[in-house]
Amino acid sequence: MNAKVQTKKSAAPKAEIGQRMAGCDILIRALEREGVECVFAYPGGASMEIHQSLTRSTIRTILPRHEQGGGFAADGYARATGRPGVCMATSGPGATNLVTAIADAYMDSVPMVAITGQVPQAMIGKGAFQETDFFGMTLPVVKHSYLITDVNEIPRVVKEAFYIARTGRPGPVVIDFPKNIQQLRTQPVWPSEISLRGYDPNQRADDVALNEIIGLIEKSERPVLYCGGGIITGEASGELRQFAEAAQIPVTTTIMGCGAFPETHALSLRWLGMHGAAYANWAVSGEFQHRTSPDQQMIRVHPGADLLLAFGVRFDDRVTGKVDEFCKTGTIVHIDVDQSEHNKNRKVQLAVQSDIRYALGRLNEMIRRRPIRKTFAAWHQQIAEWKARAPLRYSVTEEVSRSEHMREHLHGRESEVILPQMVIETLYELTKGEAIITTGVGQHQMWAGQYYKFTWPRQFLTSAGLGAMGYGFPAALGAKVARPDKQVIDIDGDGSFLMNIQELATAHIEKIAAKAVILNNQHLGMVMQWEDKFYDGNRGHTYLGDPDKRRQIYPDYVAMAHSFNVPAQRVMYKKDLRAALQAMLDSDQPYVLDVICPYTEHVIPFIPAGRTVADMIY
Ligand SMILES: Cc1ncc(C[n+]2csc(CCOP(=O)(O)OP(=O)(O)O)c2C)c(N)n1
Ligand SMILES: [Mg+2]
Question: Which of 168, 407, 464, 607 has the fewest CB atoms nearer than 10 Å to its CB?
Answer without folding.
Answer: 407
